TrEMBL record, chain A:
This is Sulfite reduction-associated complex DsrMKJOP multiheme protein DsrJ. Gene3D superfamilies: Cytochrome C3 (3.90.10.10).
TrEMBL record, chain B:
Keywords: 4Fe-4S, Iron, Iron-sulfur, Membrane, Metal-binding, Transmembrane, Transmembrane helix. Residues 62-93, 153-182 form the 4Fe-4S ferredoxin-type domain. Pfam families: Fer4_11 (PF13247). This is Sulfite reduction-associated complex DsrMKJOP iron-sulfur protein DsrO. It comes from the Bacteria.
Amino acid sequence: MAKATVRTILLVGLVWALLAQTVLAEEVRRYVVEGSKAAELDACVEPTERMRRMHFEFIKHQRIATVHQGIRGTKYSLAGCVDCHISYDEQRQPQPIDRPDQFCGACHAYAAVDLNCFDCHASVPNRSEDSPEAQAAHQALGLGPLGSLAQTHAGGGER
Amino acid sequence: MKDENRATHESTEHRGIDKERRALIGAAAGVGAAMVAPGVVLHAVQAQADPRSEPVTSDVRWGLVIDTAKCADGCSACVDACNEENGLDLQTKPGRESEEKWDRQKAVWIRKVKLQDNQTGRITNLPMMCQHCEDPPCVDVCPTGASFKRADGIVMVDRHLCIGCRYCMMACPYKARSFIHEDLEGQLTSVPRGKGCVESCNLCAHRRDYGEDSTACADACAAEGHNAIVFGDLKDPNSIISQLLKELSTRQIREDLELNTGVRYAGV
């Protein structure tokens, strides 16, 4: 008798937990913006959960590696995030990524995170789409090399 | 006593490593070419090396040799090319500032300097930029570690650590550093820049990391047919720059300070 009650309670608990999870999952707002390359892809450079929790750690690590050790063409590059997550309006104009209705800006506004990165860093891409960082991100997703063969040099090439 | 030609001396010790590296690079390039086998076109288009994936090392020391005899009066090709490469031409004068003040205050990485010997009247032109000292005073005085020397000899500012105190600007004997006084817009992806930080020539660090051969200034000078600026590895005895240093009588500016600069001048 006592055993049966425990079982029922456990079962009810389990069902409740499952239901709660589905509800929660539906409540998670998505920030990937329509009209960005990311909107057409299935995955970020790391699993989405990991990106949400850890992206700033990845970027900061990348920053030191790039500025002090000259390491380039890696998937956590800040320029790489901008390349893939940037969205375009009807006139094909890129929308600054830190704007409160855009990818980084919207979530940071919601989470009350204030960044100054884009005081210095370009908030729209201004180099070719097949930059080494874009290539690295694509390869991280197992998508193989990006289409075009033409290589513009990385520094100040496209303006 | 410091050895003025430390760079050249060290090169002998590093010769072995350098050879090995070159061999490795050669092998890697071979593999790359083989893998894209049918893509002859791909191989031809991709003249540049892969972006750097290993930390920079002190196996190389980047530097410049400037032959002032070839530096033309009135030519500003190097300055213009530097401005464009590094987005310095994107700075705009704040309305309230006078032209004169703006000319003094806006960020520049290369200045054309004209020297006159008052006794003989001889005029020398030269481009002046960060001299990439082996013992940089800017690094000594920086309170946050923002001013640093990369392993490959490039002296630069980590803008993420810079608090804008400008001690480095005062410490620099070459007046090579600039401070960004205003908010900016439309920066280049490859050259971020913002208010409140110090910056200076970084020998086109992004070009180094993407395996390009030269700097914007040296390329522009060559395109003008002057070839007054030569960029290269001071530690590689076979590099053009090392050959030039062997032939020309070059000097370090303010060699009395014993900073062992990475930029050497001939004809001064």
